[in-house]
Structure formats: structure tokens, C-alpha cells
Amino acid sequence: MARCMRVRGKQGSVLILFALIIDLLLGVAALALDLGLIYIAKQRVQGVCDAAALAGARRMSSYGSIEATLASATQAANNCTKANNGVSEKWDVLSPETNQPGIKVSFPTQITTADGQIIQVAYGQALRVDGYMDVNLIFPSFIGRSLSKVPASSTVLREKAKTLATDLFVPLAASEITIFGDATHSPAAFGQRVAMKVGKWQDCWIGPGNFGTVVLPGCKRGSAAIYIGLTGQRAPITIQLDQQLIIETEPGNMSGPVAQGLTDRLNRETDPRFAPTLKNDIAWHNWVNSYDPRTGLYASTWRLAIVPIIEDVPGKTGRTDVTVVGFAGFFLESLSEDSTSTTVYGRFIQGMKCGERITWVFPNGSPASDLDIMTAVRLVN
Question: Does some domain include residue 257?
Fold first, then answer.
């Protein structure tokens, strides 16, 4: 009898031990699933915050009133979040202040980088986005609550670009006075139509024999180089923006190489919204309307280009050195060609470097007010 009782006691102990092991295994599995859900939620919240911060930063510039600029940046960040939410309510990113779908946008004057460095910045030079996501946990007893708030934040800093490496450079130039104005000329507004290469040297800001074509750093002289540079077939050029740059002008009308180069460039276009056959400002308006709120980006097209802004110094003749005071983005709109000359027109836009990619700021008609036409934005934390 005693032996049988001992056997039954062992069987009972095994069952209890088995139940404990099963509970432990289920708990470990539930914890693993919870950690996986938290990880996925963190990745999603961080991705939405990063995209929103970059979309907002692309609307930040030193042109126009600070209030209007920051309002535009806030709207762009919110639009980007809204476009990236909506997978399901379960995966919506929420605002820390309202607990509603969306994010909180702020403009800090002190930021801490990912490596712990503290940077003081001017108001309106940095944008921060905060958001979180509610995650229902499967095994709350391990963490003490059934609902976990998974937060994330992204801070973007806008600063002067130090280098520019791109295949968007074309061997045309813009006038410093045309872009920034002087005592008798108003500065250009973003979206304004500007002539880069002119048809008569008398209309050029450089001097006799010049029409607005230039020799870019690392490029050859002559009509063949002008043609290649305009077609977009040249390798990317890297230019230091934080040091003085002097380049040569390319004298002569260059009507044939310019007309053929731009024609061949635009013939490479595959998007019908920017086809070379479109007249007047149709392609330009199509590009403005191509803005994607999910990414904060405009459509890519062969019509986009970057040109140097050169100092206006009267009396320069023929091939001559000129000082570059900045770079400007242009949407190549049209060329006017007759039997002897070609004039190239483009819409003035602000470029922004994001990593190694050039993006474009919303052309809201604000005038250029300083030399930072090409700025850079970077995620700092």
C-alpha cells in the first residue's frame, strides 16, 4: 500500500511539473511574441517619424517669413504622417499630446545628436517629430501592463551643404543680380522664369563674347563638352561648396551644341507629364502638382538641373575667370531658337541635399535672400 501511494505521488509530481513547464514555455513564447510586436511597432513608428521629419524639413528655408515657413513644414510633416498611416487603426502612429493619429512637430533650438553631441541652432533650423504606437501585449504579466506605448522621435537639421556630388550639373550659368537682386533689381522668386543662356551677348551679364555657357570643374572646353554636359551623359561631378570656386566662361554663341544638347536631354524623358513637346508652362505645372505627401518629394525628370550662380563683374571679355557665389536649381522649361541663336529658359527652384540625393523645396514664390540656395538636411537622432 505504501509503495502504491509513493507511485501515485510521483505521478502527481510529474503532472504538476509538466503543467509548470507548459506554462513556462507558453509564457516564453508569449514574451517572444510581445517583444516581436514591440520591435515591429518601434520600426514602424521610427520610419513614419523619419519620413515626416524629412518631409517637413524639405519645406524649411531661409526665404519668406519664419512663421509661414514653419507652418508649411508642420503641414508637410502632418500630411506625410497621414499618408503613411491608414494601414489599419492598430498600426496608426499617434500624437503624444492628443492620443489621436498623427505626430507632434516642434522646432528645437538645442538638439542632441545620436553620438551625444549637443548643438545649439537658430530657431527654424531644426525640426523634431514625436509619435508613438499602442501595442496590445499577449503576456502582460511579464511587463506589468497589457498595453505598451512604443515611442519614437526624429530630429532633422538644416544646414549649408558642404559638398555636392551629382549628375544634375549643366554648363550654363545664372546671374548673381538676377537671382539675388541689387539696388535696382528685385531678387528672383522661386518658380520665376529665368534666362540662363542668352541669344545675344549684349543681353549677357558677363561681357562681350559671352552668352552664359561655362566650363564646369573637371570638364573640358569646347562645343563637344557643352553638348555632352547638357545631354546628361556625363559622370557625376563633385564640388566643394564650403570654399571659393572660380570657373571659366565658354565664349561664343554655342547655339548648335546648346540646342541639340537640350533637345537630346529632353528626348530621354519617359514621363509624359514632362514630354519635350509640351508648350509654355504645362510641364512646369505638372511638376509642381507631382508632389507626393507620403514622401515629401516631387517627380524625377530630365528637366531638373543645377547651375552655378556667378558674380556680376562688368567688362569681362571672351574666355575669362568668374567667381561662383552659389548654385541654383532649375526646371528646364523651354528654349527659344532662331537661325543664329538659342536662349534657354528655366524655372528657378531651391535644391536641398538629403544624404546624397538632391530634393526640391516647394516653389512658393518666396524671393532668394541669401547664398544658401543649396542647403542640406540630415537626421541627427
Answer: yes
CA 93, distance to chain mean position in Å, is: 23
Return the number of other C-beta atoms located less than 10 Å from residue 166's C-beta.
18
Query: What cell numbers appear for 197 in the block?
Result: 543662356
Q: Report yes or no on 1 lying in a domain.
A: no
**Looking at the DSSP assignment, which residues form a beta bridge with residue 129?**
105, 154
Are 129 and 53 a contacting pair, CB within 8 Å?
Answer: yes
Residues 188 and 244 in one domain: yes
Domain co-membership, 151 together with 181: no
Q: What is the pTM of this model?
A: 0.74
C-alpha cell, 220: 573640358
Q: Which domain range does residue 362 map to?
A: 163-376
Indicate whether 4 belongs to any domain: no
User: Half-sphere exposure (CA, 13 Å, Cβ side) for 265?
Assistant: 29
Instruction: Encode the chain (381 residues) as per-residue pLDDT tens digits.
Output: 445 445 555 555 666 665 566 655 555 555 566 677 788 889 999 999 999 998 888 877 655 677 877 888 898 899 999 988 876 777 889 999 888 999 999 999 998 887 888 989 888 889 999 999 888 776 665 555 566 788 999 999 988 778 888 889 999 999 888 888 888 888 888 788 888 898 888 888 888 999 999 999 888 999 999 999 999 888 888 888 888 899 999 999 998 999 999 999 999 999 999 999 887 789 999 998 888 877 778 899 999 999 999 988 777 888 999 999 888 889 998 878 666 678 899 998 877 777 777 878 765 555 555 545 577 788 888
Backbone φ, ψ for residue 74 (5° rounding): -60, -45
